[in-house]
Amino acid sequence: MAELIFRTGTMDAGKSTLALQTNHNHAARGRRGRLFTSHDRAGTAMVSSRLGLVADAEEVAPDFDFWRYTVDALTRGARIDYVICDEAQFYTAEQIDQLAKVVDELQIDVFCFGILTDFRTRLFPGSARLVELADRTEVLQVEALCWCGKRATHNARTENGVMVTEGEVIVVGDVDAADHPPAAVDDVEVAYEVLCRQHHRRGMTAARARAVSLSPEPLPFT
Ligand SMILES: [Zn+2]
Asked: Does domain 4-139 have CATH number 3.20.20.10?
């Protein structure tokens, strides 16, 4: 029986690495798959991981139809045993419904990888629909850590170094500023950082914690 599987974690949890590893494992067993992504950090139509792995993928625009794409490909004689969907949090709820139909009606395994919640701690629409529909939702075992050493469960967005909790949901940036400079949008440098819930609630990023610890006067927690 084919399955719809959702593997989720915070931004640093190695989801794209696992997506590429999953693709490799299935391809090595002679299975044929298709790779999809949306707003990948490397640019459109690529799945890239922080460890340097890269693969070509189809870009999922908001009007992309997984059901029509798959039926068309099969009709043309293509073989598809599995589908890998990276950055699935950015897909529409409708597209997740199409993926469930691909699993049920065409017996194709679908592996989705994505972040559960956005920087405001709200579920992404694609992730919410995946939690509702997936045969299995797995939280990745490679755990990202907050600067305090606790398990990082939330994604924080910073603009010019200051944590924000309002704004457009989709602004692509990266957690690793060393490899990928922050995305500049209208002269605002957008970056991401993974935090534990307590430090996300307090808006206490690593930089702010450092500033507080160096400050002669203790700053009040807000
Ligand atoms: Zn923390």
From this structure: no
Distance 148 CA to ligand 1 centre (A): 4
Say if residue 111's pLDDT is above 90.
yes
Q: What is the C-alpha separation between 170 and 193, in angstroms, rounded?
A: 15
Q: How far is the CA of 175 from the centre of ligand 1 (A)?
A: 16
Q: What is the pLDDT of residues 19-31, one digit of tens each?
A: 999 999 999 999 9
Q: How many whole angstroms from 74 Cα to the centroid of ligand 1?
A: 48
CA proximity to 162, closest of 90, 87, 222:
222
Catalytic residues: 87
pTM, two decimal places: 0.81
Confidence of residue 169 (pLDDT cuts 50, 70, 90): confident
H/E run at residue 52:
none
Listed in order, the ranges of the chain carrying CATH 3.40.50.300 are 4-139
